[in-house]
UniProtKB/TrEMBL annotation:
UniProt entry keywords in alphabetical sequence: Membrane, Transmembrane, Transmembrane helix
Official protein name in the record: MFS transporter
GO cellular component: plasma membrane
Biological source species: Pseudomonas azotoformans
Membrane topology, record value: Multi-pass membrane protein
Keyword Cytoplasm belongs to the record: no
Transmembrane segments: 27-49, 61-80, 92-111, 117-138, 150-169, 181-200, 261-282, 294-316, 323-341, 347-372, 384-410, 416-434
């Protein structure tokens, strides 16, 4: 038995009806924002060699730029996501898009490494604030039977954006220059922000806590269910029962602290792996005397694997359970990396391995985001997802920095791959321990929402 909340009532309305145009529009818009997020996050990794040449520095000298961008991602997730539970998810999402679009565009005008570091840091804040709110809105407006699939489909957008960034650089860098590619990466989010303001609804959970919101709630329900005569009376009656406590302490109550810590560990380790690969593989291959185009194509394959992994992740998790699928993915990652670290790496082994690693690593990241949406109740979901992503950004900062240090120390690819086993082992251990949490074993069904855990 659960206490009725506005989000539960919305779920009851959503589950009783076919998927509406509003839900399809919302999913498409959120995926589009995720594509732009992935494009702007990854494009700097593809352009590091060209930017270093223009700025008269070595590629290794731009390692702090990677760290600054990822530190911004961490702050955006830690600060903007909890603000969304208090100020509105749609508002903070729009603010985040405007931030990363504006400063991605300004990247085209930098003249030195210091300016580049500042604009990538501010771009990162916007990028970090967007994703937790996309996850929270998608999970709130999706039918419970499709909640995992919707969240993991959302995360197809990021590797798809990274893949598009690679294709854009591969085809246009020589003729357009890196500056114009940042103009593209900045202008598109600014255009999409206007569409989000126009078409994407605000969170019902948030609106239910605001005085005088009945008209806005009625408009949303009418878009979801045009044939519904009126807003369920209980939605307005429950407004005062909806909690306003969205502090970090809610993540560490008696029933939450263990799952919070065991979720943070694989987030950090998987993002360490993901951002190391995305940031340094092209440069590693150039250092091994391969052409830059080969490194770009390796990342395109990794991103393609991410799209495939994200597409199938929701179906796999619905069929076999979130934690079981994540366990298999981390075991698969360790197997592939161990094999690569023990064998001479050729292009013929690297490209298939990059595709498989994309499926496993980015599929696991989509799965971790879906798992976070399941483990936290709706009223603190943006806070929970935001802090998981924010703490995970410690790993995403550490990965590129460690990559730069290992390159500077003269490590070869096989030595770096051996070191990459460590975060995989830590992630697998944490997921194995999370199996003992009863909430991680529950399945969202028409009678049981992820918001009830």
């Amino acid at each position: 038995m659960h206490t009725p909340t506005p989000s539960n009532i919305l779920c009851d309305v959503v589950d009783a009806l076919p998927v509406s145009r509003l839900q399809w529009e919302g999913l498409a818009l959120c995926v589009l924002v995720a594509v732009l997020d992935g494009f702007d996050t990854q494009i700097v990794g593809f352009l590091v060699t060209a930017m270093a040449s223009t700025l008269n520095v070595t590629p290794q000298a731009l390692a702090p730029v990677f760290a600054a961008g990822l530190f911004g991602l961490m702050l955006g997730a830690l600060l903007l996501a909890p603000m969304a539970d208090r100020l509105g998810r749609k508002r903070i999402l729009v603010l985040s898009i405007l931030l990363f679009g504006t400063f991605a565009l300004l990247t085209a005008f930098v003249n030195n490494v210091s300016q580049l570091l500042v604009v990538r840091f501010l771009t990162g804040i916007g990028l970090g604030g967007a994703i937790p709110n996309l996850v929270a809105l998608i999970s709130e407006y999706s039918p419970r039977r499709y909640s995992r699939s919707a969240v993991t489909l959302l995360f197809c957008g990021m590797p798809l954006g990274a893949m598009l960034a690679g294709l854009t650089v591969d085809q246009l860098l020589a003729t357009w220059g890196w500056e114009n590619l940042f103009l593209i990466g900045g202008a598109l989010p600014l255009l999409v922000a206007g569409v989000v303001v126009w078409r994407l609804p605000e969170s019902v959970e948030f609106l239910s806590r605001q005085p005088g919101s009945r008209a806005a709630l009625s408009a949303i329900i009418k878009r979801l269910a045009p044939n519904l005569a009126e807003l369920p009376a209980s939605l307005g009656q429950l407004r005062q029962q909806a909690t306003s406590s969205t502090s970090l302490s809610r993540l560490f109550t008696a029933g939450m602290w263990r799952r919070t810590l065991l979720l943070w560990l694989p987030y950090a380790m998987n993002l360490l792996i993901l951002y190391f690969i995305m940031s340094w593989i092209p440069t590693l291959l150039v250092a091994a005397h391969a052409p830059l185009s080969m490194g770009i194509r390796a990342i395109i394959l990794f991103s393609l694997g991410g799209v495939i992994g994200s597409v199938v992740q929701g179906w796999l998790m619905n069929r076999w359970g979130s934690v079981n699928v994540l366990t298999i993915e981390f075991m698969g990652y360790l197997t592939i990396v161990l094999a690569l670290s023990q064998l001479p790496v050729s292009i013929y082994s690297l490209f298939p391995a990059m595709l498989l690693l994309g499926i496993l690593v980015q599929g696991a990241q989509a799965g971790l985001n879906a798992l976070a949406a399941e483990l936290y109740p709706q009223e603190i979901r943006s806070t929970g997802i935001g802090w998981a992503l924010g703490v995970g950004r410690v790993g995403s900062i550490t990965g590129p920095v460690c990559g730069g240090l290992m390159l500077a120390a003269g490590w070869v690819l096989t030595e770096i791959l051996s070191a990459a086993l460590v975060p995989g082992i830590i992630a697998l251990t944490a997921i194995t321990l999370l199996r003992l949490d009863p909430a991680s074993k529950q399945q969202p069904t028409p009678s049981q929402s992820v918001t009830h855990h």
